[in-house]
Amino acid sequence: MASIHCTFFSKILAKQVTADVCLPSLTGREAETLSDGERFRTDRKFRTLVLLHGYTGNSSDWQRYSQVELFAEECGIAVVCPDGNNGHYSDWVCGPQNLTFLQKEFLPAMRAMFPLSTEREDTFVGGLSMGGYGAVKWALTWPETFSHLLNFSGGVDIMDRLEYYKKRPETARLMETVYGKLDEVSGGPNDNFQLLEQYAESGYPLPRLFSACGTEDAPVYGVHKRLMEEFSRRGGDVTEFSCEGIHDFHFWNKALERAMYDWLPAEKG
């Protein structure tokens, strides 16, 4: 397993940005039994899982707090994690174009630097909490990009989250900087359920959905159920993972393990 922390320049964000990457060994557990020619193939393109962190987190969260490196190695999936700051993976009304950066620079940069597949069927996105909101929005905004979508306790209903943020002095003003007039967010490009309503116009099949939430995670459990219902109502392929748990990595690690070993189309070995 290669664990890489990299830095590159973003023209869209006008700054140096970071990413954390897990690359499986080219031959997994068979490395000691294969010839160098077989081990160091230059034609292999890894299936790729993009994982987004939550509010107050950074690109290293998944590697520090979960067993994602072990899962990636054994499943043969590359994992790439951008640093989204507290930007809500959104193009701000007054500030950085965070979602455009992910699609137009981050993913192309990862594919240029590492042996990652460019095929939709091999490219997956997921996130926890704020990252779950961002993953759903990214997948629904650019339907050509991802075939599988993973929601880990995501605050995927922005209207519900805005009510929460408006009550907190450290985030109330920030939300206006991100979204502008808060009473105009509903039905717009930052409203995941509006994006889902319009998705059929894209001509792409809905990404397969894996939605996970702990049964004690009251703030987001209801919207986790709603997301699955709305995907199912539109003919989407939906898988739920739920067990006792709250809004923390003890639960998210369990959910990630189930998703990577039993749900994603991984290459074992």
From TrEMBL:
One Pfam family from the record: Esterase
Gene3D superfamilies reported for this sequence: alpha/beta hydrolase
Origin superkingdom: Bacteria
InterPro entries per record: AB_hydrolase_fold, Esterase-like, Mycobacterial_A85_antigen
GO molecular function terms listed in the Swiss-Prot or TrEMBL record: acyltransferase activity, transferring groups other than amino-acyl groups
Name of this chain's protein: Esterase
Annotated organism of origin: Candidatus Eisenbergiella merdavium
Classification lineage: Bacteria, Bacillati, Bacillota, Clostridia, Lachnospirales
